UniProtKB/TrEMBL annotation:
Record InterPro entries: BBE, FAD-bd_PCMH, FAD-bd_PCMH-like_sf, FAD-bd_PCMH_sub1, FAD-bd_PCMH_sub2, FAD-linked_Oxidoreductase, Oxid_FAD_bind_N, Oxy_OxRdtase_FAD_BS
Cofactor: FAD
Keywords: FAD, Flavoprotein, Oxidoreductase
Family membership: Belongs to the oxygen-dependent FAD-linked oxidoreductase family.
Pfam families (UniProt xref): BBE, FAD_binding_4
Protein name (database record): FAD-binding oxidoreductase
Record-annotated FAD-binding PCMH-type domain positions: 58-228
Lineage: Bacteria, Bacillati, Actinomycetota, Actinomycetes, Pseudonocardiales
Amino acid sequence: MDRRTFLRVSGAVPVAGLAGWPPPDDWERLRARLAGPLFRPGDPGYADAKLVFFTMYDDRVPAAVVGAACVEDVQLAVAFAARHRLPVAARGGGHSYPGYSTVDGGIVVDLSRFSGIEVRPDGRAVIGAGAKLGPIATTLAAAGRVLPAGSCDTVGIAGLALGGGVGVLDRKYGLTCDHLEAARIVTADGRVRTVSAAAEPDLFWALRGGGGGNFGIVTGFTFRTVPIADVATFDLKFPADARTALFAAWQEWQPAAPDELWSGMGLAWNEASLGGTFLGPRARMHELLEDLVRRVGTQPVEWHEAVQDHLTAMRTFDDHDSRPGAAAAARYAYTGTSRMLTRPAEDPAAVVEVLTRDPGVRTIVDSGGGAIARVGVRETPFPHRKALASLQFLHGAEPADGGLAGARRSLAAVRDGLGPEFGTTGYVNYLDPEMPDWAHAYYGVNAERLRAVARKYDPRGIFAFPQGLSAARSTVHIGGT
């Protein structure tokens, strides 16, 4: 035990996160070495620099926000945090439901300056870890390409891809992580590694669905993209009392549909809706929808179909304000959790009753199958390859909604009230800090292999956080992006 360690454990040196630690001179030396800005409490710009997408975490007080301008800044931030035993949060889009994109008393590494998007002549895309889905889709569309991903403009690519990446084209093309060819990552030893199937394949495997923040801070990606033409879209709204009939019919209809058809349901006490995309002739899509309506036995009260360019089609699935400049500024208060539908529910009415008994809960059902299911369960960390669908449960977290604690209570009743068809399952990109047996729910049979990779690249637990795979370390936390 060296002198500094002895003094720390004996109480003679302040522990991380307390006022006055690290000393001001250490912060100033870090500031002088960074290419990007360092925001400390009291600095101009700090109040805005510390904010994430969700307003529930506005009371968090990071010791600093590092506006990383280059990979060396990320290395400096990680080294500083490790040296001073400070918690760290890597922030891309900042959409982490548990607020892991920020941290009290620690360092937030803001990756927003890593926002470059380059489309190469061969169709590959080199994308910075701070880029968001809206600009990515716009840039790729201009080149006639698309990266299968989510539809919310303000979600960051890093968190999405590192957790798997579900979206509206997945049944045809697979998950976002299935298109990842290489990633650049700063690991706990301060090294910058470019990993791929040929270079450090175990770490590359772990990054394709192993969750954000578990193995280091990723600063850039190389993805394969696919050419895209116009997309047929649909939006059906049924009477609210058709919820059970819609769910029952859908769970038989969607798995039998061609890969070109993706759909998502919205279920709530006053909602029974279905929207989706079809990568083929509109006439064929209409035939498929007529078949579903026959199975439901109730005519929709609204039925809209269109053929749109891909970019316009994606924006129809973004619930947030997508007007120019609005999405970047808008922030919200809500949270969520999830389950996976692993087989058709034996009692659809019982499932729908659980989903809709609380008027504050809305359920989004995203279809699986197709190309997702043709990748082996162990080929990537994403274990739910055979699931029929993912279910995301949402609840407002404003004071009028009962706040964050009230939202989590309501969501837990839904999450834990579903039957054996759903099991111990969940989607890691919808992190829930109260998810029972979370490692098994999110990673299934891949959890132990992921832990082994984390131990190899982070043996001291520099990147540990409450739902992380690194070795436990009470004073250090790196969260999702």
